[in-house]
Protein: Permease IIC component
Organism: Coprobacillus cateniformis
Amino acid sequence: MDKLKVFFDKFQNVMEEKVVPVATRIASQKHLSALRDGLTILIPFTVIGGISLMIANPPVDLEVMKPTNFFFQFMIMWKNWATDWATLLTIPFHLTIGIISVYVVLGISYRFSKYYKMEALPNSLTALFVFLCVAGVPQSINEGSFIDVSGLGASSMFAAIIIALLVIEINHWMIIKNLKISMPKGVPPMVAGPFEVLLPLVVNTILFIVLDQVIFMITGSGLTNLVFTIFSPLISATASLPSMLFIVVLTVVFWFFGIHGDNMVSAITTPIFTGNLVANLDAYNAGKDIPNIIAGNFTFIFGLAIVYLAILFNMNFICKNKRLRSLGKLAIPSSLFNINEPLVFGVPTVLNILTFIPSVICIIINVAIAYGATSVGFMNRTCMSVPWTLPAPLYAFLSTLDWRAIVVWIGLFIINVIIFIPFMKSYDKQMDIEEQSSME
């Protein structure tokens, strides 16, 4: 134990000497700082959206669960009630996480405007308007106009981030160059502020609409799908271990930059994973050998699901910073049901090198070990479709129908917690330093 403690102390010292200064420089860079602080504004919205989704999607499969005891009866009643009231229950989800890019562009542009000491509200509304011009174009349906809110969700977060930062940069440049409509002296700032952004609003609107159309002509899809268009050829791979490791690492990289990693890769991976799951289920029903190791939500349950819960554990039991511990307690209900947005935007893990490095290490270890354990027959292959909101250890068991899957999952969780400890301790200290500096 003494040697292990010495190792951790040395490792943490290296972290504080080498990694923390880099993380601090990243945190203080004006664009990245605005991105981080802007995403922090999303915390209450992601929490209420996650709770809404959790209530509306109880972890129950009515074809499998039967009312054989009081608990199962309660769960079935909950499922039936949630199904009947799904439209009402999911309103908070659809208007928070469902259109999260709206809050992203508002939050980042607001923080960036504050950095430049510009009128924050008119400038952030300018960024929102420009974003809607490319992501929320009204469609004519049955003599009416409607906005497809799917274009305002997590898949458009990259465009929201870029537009928020560039619009404020352009507005700032035009204002300092006096390319604006100036009101006479004596006009209150609350009246003059909106007129200052009028000309920049026109310029940004034209610029981004033209840019969106140019990208569409070149790639076949607009600015909101640009990242997916670029990376989709790289993601199109078979369900082998090397390709899966590449995909899960790429997912973590997307999340690091505030882009919904799961959404970015799901269009390619979902058909593969779903097809593999169907083939496995058919083989199971026929009493044949199950063919595919990676199927269904295998890479998530034995990957990011463990990573996020390891972060949550460290926040609640290792970290001492009051903000991190408070957020850790707040995120417990949603994280237990695999809804991790409060951690992503609350910690945040976005542009946080002290969570990014261990996340990459852990997800490679997790998927590789889970793949190997399945390959050698230590645990069964995934063959059951299970509600995605089921707590991850239970999901691992029910999807494989093998208690050893829980053993593998818990073992990986312990490894992840240990790997994260020195990083989270360093982040804990960094948070204390930043809070003390802000109070001075």
Q: What stands out?
A: The CA atoms of residues 271 and 296 lie 10 Å apart. The chain has two domains: 2-32+239-434, 101-227. The chain is about 70% helix and 0% strand.
